[in-house]
Amino acid sequence: MTDKSEGVRLSDEQRLDWLRLIRSDNVGPRTFRALNNHYGGARAALSAVPDLARRGGATGPARPSREDAAREFKAAKTLGVSFVALGEPDYPRRLQMIDDAPPLLAVRGNAAALNLPAVAVVGARNASAAGVRFAERLARDLGEAGFAVVSGLARGIDAAAHRASLASGTIAVLAGGHDRLYPPEHAELAGAILAQGALVSEMPFGREPRARDFPRRNRLISGICAGVVVVEAARRSGSLITARFALEQGREVFAVPGSPLDPRAEGSNDLIKQGATLVTEAADVLAVLRPIIGTPIELRAEEPEAPPPPAELGAAERARIVELLGPTPVPIDDLMRLSGSSPAAVRVVLLELELAGRLERHGGALVSLL
Amino acid sequence: MTDKSEGVRLSDEQRLDWLRLIRSDNVGPRTFRALNNHYGGARAALSAVPDLARRGGATGPARPSREDAAREFKAAKTLGVSFVALGEPDYPRRLQMIDDAPPLLAVRGNAAALNLPAVAVVGARNASAAGVRFAERLARDLGEAGFAVVSGLARGIDAAAHRASLASGTIAVLAGGHDRLYPPEHAELAGAILAQGALVSEMPFGREPRARDFPRRNRLISGICAGVVVVEAARRSGSLITARFALEQGREVFAVPGSPLDPRAEGSNDLIKQGATLVTEAADVLAVLRPIIGTPIELRAEEPEAPPPPAELGAAERARIVELLGPTPVPIDDLMRLSGSSPAAVRVVLLELELAGRLERHGGALVSLL
């Protein structure tokens, strides 16, 4: 990955390779990165995937064909969606910083909106009339101040935030594929967003969003933004998940207060107790974010690329590494130290397990068995 | 002034002297303290007052007679009110710490309530139903946790806080004399408070509370307490004055959040922005105050008593000191240094001006001409 000013564009063939790799079974953004780094490119990684998966214990094939990927590209083109790759100039700059940034982002609408400084406005689906009114006022003022307002296209606060910032450019991050908008009744709103703003998704075409896709999507909402404003949120609500991602990603967290007797304010009041900035007007957000958006973004350091794995990795060595793993996340460094194996050997075994769906990667270079 | 454990009681005659001195024209708590310290007691100070006032430029007499004071004592006794002097065991411990603690506090009801750890619950007179409900819940829970709930007997939040903590002991600080309850319709509430709690006032019997008496009273509400909770407060409201006093006095400030669209939450939301602790339940208050009430209270250092003033203080020296004063508050130390006069001489001139109503004392040993 390179600084935006030096961003390079993938060739069409490279983009197809990237799409095939990220759409392979058990390949998420972190595995994509590990494979890409280990094999020095998506093409080489794709060739290695079947063997790796088999050695990790997987049975069936796990890799879309070149034709499958081409078909998704074609479907995307029909809907006016383009795939922006991590490191390309149009890729949202801040999103590059997060650990599990999608290698490819499917973008529909005005891609220039992704280059605006961005702030998320999220909240309850069952919002109160006051909450909706406040979200509208806030989103309008943040838009007029030059920010792209980012949200999740949900009912309630999300929709209010998008609607009030249509003119200045608003970004909706989808939990499913571009051809599976959720909720369906927001199709018209989604259409209105396209003029100045954009819809983005990391999910394949045809993917109906499932419950677990929403929290996963929320990391992109916070990841694109310099800060997240939670307008109304009950305890244990999706908006709080977005706020937690924001904290993990080093983003600013803002919350709008409410009466302690209103359950829809419990989550946002809790956030303020925990240190979130209290917001009663856009100026409260701008005072914190304006100094931040002026400063250069520090991109995450990359692991150095490793040489190809030693061919002689034997069954005993593999078993020793697997034995060190369990359901409790452990640092990869510990595996290297305790197994006595080379870093390259450990990485290969982890990739094998991962592609077989037996390994989970956590933040901070921790891994656990599933 | 001594530590509570060593508190001594005034004799009846001393208490009369204290009452006469604090009821003299232009003698507030700070002047009382200066006179008492300078002359080594209220009796000697009382003898000096007429001459001092005359030299300061005052015309009329300014000192109630012994009979006047005895009459107030009698009126107080009839209503079951007793005068507790600064330094006596029943005087609220924390109140002793403030710069302008009243030398005598007129107490009606259960004086033992003044020895409980105390927390103020204050807010809007035109409170919302939700605000009243929350104030009741909070005051009840704080009372059950062993705190005396202190407030101002006003309509709205104050009355709700008192009502909900009648059983555990609640303290109402009056802005006027004990025989001039305000608002009059809270006479029954005031009566109910007396069983477990107390009404307190620094004001003379017969004093109808005027507008300027309320902010002055508010410093006692915060002064008695370890912390102040503001439940609903518009901008520029009396509750914010109490919060400001609390900050000046080093008390904890708490505020209950509300919707940014509710004008009654503007003041409390502002307080949270400025660093007040957000409160949604009594536990938020207790978590901060419990560690504080366990720690010993550090009493303010006293100025050492000065010798009697030099008799030979001449007109030229007096004029030189007065000339250094103006409407801008200046440190008393500067007056001593710039005038070349002795500290005792400067103090006497200041007392003269003060008793003539021409001097204002501010916090931090600053003074200005009126």
Description:
2 copies of one chain form a homodimer. The first copy, chain A, is an alpha/beta fold. Chain A has 14 helices and 12 strands. Chain A has helices at 12-22, 29-39, 42-56, 66-78, 129-144, 157-164, 187-193, 213-224, 238-248, 266-273, 282-293, 315-323, 332-339, 343-355, and strands at residues 81-85, 104-109, 118-122, 148-151, 170-173, 198-201, 227-230, 252-255, 277-278, 330-331, 359-362, 366-369. The first copy, chain A, has a 9-stranded mixed sheet, with helices on both faces. In chain A, strands 10-12-11 form a 3-stranded antiparallel sheet. In chain A, helix 3 packs across helix 14 (343-355) and helix 8 (213-224) crosses helix 9. The interface between A and B is medium-sized, with 20 and 20 residues.
Silhouette of chain A: globular
Weakly predicted, low-confidence segments of chain A: 1-5
End-to-end separation of chain A in angstroms reads 30 Å
Please, what is the oligomeric state? homodimer
Task: State Rg of chain A.
Answer: 21 Å
Fold topology:
The structure is a homodimer of 370-residue chains.
Chain A: H1 12-22, H2 29-39, H3 42-56, H4 66-78, E1 81-85, E2 104-109, E3 118-122, H5 129-144, E4 148-151, H6 157-164, E5 170-173, H7 187-193, E6 198-201, H8 213-224, E7 227-230, H9 238-248, E8 252-255, H10 266-273, E9 277-278, H11 282-293, H12 315-323, E10 330-331, H13 332-339, H14 343-355, E11 359-362, E12 366-369
Parallel strand pairs in A: 3-4, 3-7, 4-5, 5-6, 7-8, 8-9
Antiparallel strand pairs in A: 1-2, 2-6, 10-12, 11-12
Helix pairs in contact in A: 1-3, 1-4, 2-3, 2-14, 3-14, 5-6, 8-9
